[in-house]
Design brief:
Growth Hormone, Chain: A
Length: 427
């Protein structure tokens, strides 16, 4: 590229990153709002602990299946339109969820929401690999991945404010629904799928296929890039344990803080916001370490992050119930700082390993394994809590983090990306 075109490209690249970040943050707003509403739903008796845990589990499994299936489609279809449809449907599901009082309808609407939510990340994974060169993907995609935390902070902050002002839990779904519908329209008109769609030249990547060659790949070719890669399998298995810990804190945080630590929902919500703020910083830090220290080998960063997540999780469990709130908050923030590094980097490493030709499919595969974890973080947490208490549940998070660390160690020797390997093999 000429210097002038390079300048335009960089400007358009950041417009895409910010626009897609905003859009994906609103996917989270219409998914993580449930964690703030659920303590009041339990108090009012409109849903039981087991019913809630079961709903969270099925929602997560459906979301994982959706990411997997939609990963196939997102590699072939326009990502911008794909995201618009998914977010618009999620807004609709949130609105009708807030209108019902029947457990069976709660389940139906939230499970459908799980499917539409799965239409958000796969197209983003594909579009990001078109906009960002592999040598800087970890840093910039880690910045992009803070959209998860910004969305969760929005959900926690907005719902905390609504509840503090005296609005019922239903408004935690109605207000995000309206906001998400507006952002879906923003995505449709302002997010460009690729440099080509923005009138710019495509990235020049050594050993990468041209767009025409990439579009000529069959589904079987893309499946070989994903399922024939041992590293992607290790990432997918590790993601199962990453998400148990992450969702354990995020989905049940306000509930176990209230029931186990005796902290009011309003203060518990602020503590989980602090958890997410730490996650934003930790996500960017993990991306920087991957690019600058480990030269793109994200699995190494993930292994260290999981070890430190285990230590902070154990510390939070070990902290006496009567300890000052600030101490519990610091330990929660430590867990958030380190658990979100692997959560972000798995998608980055998978995209680089599968190359841009199968990035969405690879993220769909790691995603389905991650969200299969809701068997544990949903109904599993409910079971452990009911039979052994919150103490045993929180202690188990540290154990899950250690298992995840071991799996990342199996990918320690992986190369930074799959472009060179594919060029050497001709596949």
């Amino acid at each position: 590229m000429t210097p002038e075109v390079e300048k335009k490209f960089q400007s358009a690249q950041w417009k895409f990153i910010i626009g897609s970040m905003v859009t994906y943050a609103f996917f989270y707003l219409t998914r993580k709002n449930l964690s703030m509403a659920q303590p009041l739903m339990l108090e009012e008796g409109v849903i039981s602990t087991y019913a809630l845990g079961t709903m969270l589990t099925i929602h997560g499994v459906v979301y994982g299946l959706s990411r997997f299936v939609n990963g196939f489609w997102a590699d072939r279809l326009n990502g911008r339109i794909f995201m618009f449809v998914g977010l618009a449907l999620s807004a609709l599901m949130n609105f009708v969820f807030g209108c019902t009082s029947l457990s069976v309808l709660f389940a139906v609407f939230w499970i459908v929401n799980g499917w539409t939510q799965g239409m958000g990340f796969p197209p983003c994974a594909k579009m990001l690999t078109h906009w960002i060169h592999p040598r800087e993907l970890a840093t910039k995609m880690s910045i992009w991945n803070t959209s998860h935390s910004f969305g969760a902070v929005m959900a926690l902050g907005l719902c905390s404010a609504l509840l503090a002002l005296g609005f019922g839990w239903r408004w935690c779904f109605w207000v995000p629904a309206v906001m998400a519908a507006a952002i879906a329209v923003f995505c449709l008109f302002f997010v460009k799928e690729s440099p080509k769609e923005a009138g710019l030249p495509e990235l020049e990547i050594e050993n990468a296929r041209s767009d025409d060659q990439g579009s000529a790949l069959t589904t079987k070719d893309r499946m070989r890039l994903v399922f024939g890669n041992r590293v992607i399998w290790m990432l997918a298995l590790a993601n199962f344990f990453v998400y148990i810990v992450r969702f354990g804190f995020l989905d049940w945080g306000p509930t176990f803080l209230k029931q186990y630590k005796g902290i009011p929902v309003s203060k518990g919500g602020l503590m989980i916001i602090a958890f997410e703020v730490a996650a934003i910083i930790g996500t960017v830090f993990a991306g920087w370490v991957t690019d600058k220290v480990f030269k793109g080998r994200g699995a190494r960063t993930c292994a260290f992050c999981m070890l430190l997540t285990a230590l902070f999780s154990f510390g939070f469990w070990y902290l006496p119930s009567g300890a000052p709130i600030w101490q519990a908050t610091v330990l929660l923030m430590g867990a958030g700082f380190f658990i979100y590094g692997p959560q972000a980097l798995i998608g980055i490493v998978a995209a680089n390993q599968a190359t841009k030709e199968a990035a969405a499919m690879a993220n769909g595969f790691t995603g389905i394994m991650g969200y299969a974890s809701t068997v544990m973080s949903g109904i599993g947490v409910a079971f452990i809590k009911e039979h052994y208490g919150w103490g045993a549940t929180l202690c188990s998070f540290a154990g899950f983090a250690i298992v995840g660390m071991v799996l990342f160690l199996f990918a320690w020797t992986a190369s930074a990306d799959g472009y060179r390997r594919n060029a050497q093999t001709g596949k």
